[in-house]
From TrEMBL:
SUPFAM superfamilies noted in UniProt: Acyl-CoA N-acyltransferases (Nat)
Name of the protein in question: Glycine N-acyltransferase-like protein
Protein source organism: Platysternon megacephalum (big-headed turtle)
Residue ranges of the region described as Disordered: 253-276
Family: Belongs to the glycine N-acyltransferase family.
Keywords, sorted A to Z: Acyltransferase, Transferase
Domain (Glycine N-acyltransferase C-terminal) ranges: 158-244
A molecular function GO annotation: glycine N-acyltransferase activity
Leader sequence segment: none
Enzyme class, broadest EC rank: transferase
Ranges for domain Glycine N-acyltransferase N-terminal: 1-156
Known EC number: 2.3.1.-
Record-level GO cellular component terms: mitochondrion
Amino acid sequence: MHVNRGNPAGQEVLVDSWPEFKMVLARPCREVARDPSDYFTNLYTAFYRVEGACRALLGNSRAVDCGQAFQIEVLQDGVYETIRDIARARGLEMETYPYRPLLHPDPPAMPQYRPDKGLSLAPVSPAHAMLLNDTWKFGGNSWSLRYLSLLIRHFPNACLLAPEGTPISWCLTNPLGVLTHGYTLPEHRGQHHMRSVVGMLAAQLHARGFPVYTGVLTNNEPSLHTLQRLGFRILPGVFYQLVVRPGFAQSQPASALDSAQDPAPSSGERPHTHST
């Protein structure tokens, strides 16, 4: 959704044939996919009309670089099985994260909750990237810090600030427009702060013409209940996040970075976390 809006993540779009196509693949441009171990930046997603075309394109080494670590986010049946089979055949490691997909059918009707006294809604600041990295299930390393910094700078987000200016609850969106890294600090839980944050973020997304959707890990019942109370509906199927690696790779700890710079986006046209 962001490819024709400045393309801040540096994505490109491939099809199996033109002008009649049966498969669409979004992937990082070469200028962006510079680190072969950075599966955060090396983000793919796939959509198909004919499953055979999907298998053929995903199995093409010129379309998907299996010599690099990458992640692919998919919802349609068959893509998970295709990537699984490719990983097995080529001796690749694959981590599978299944999510329940949720969509809000009418974002303007979402309840808007005012923050408690002394708290304020605001965009997430790049200065808070380290805090978000330290609290993220997939964080704690240099790749994730760079990725979160990209999301904070270029994609819609919202947070709830304490009086001293520290975020206590927040939610981001990824390059696919998915609500991701929804989190409330443990000492502030049980006060429904996420309702205010998601309400503000949903309004931003709707104003841009984006759907308001996300995925929740299958064992994350608290997040699921919060979103359902806000009017989100569970969609059929499974939203998969698949992380594929050619072998073990080590990242620097985030603290070793002098700064978390965005990967250089390509100027060419190109179109993730995921989620709570």
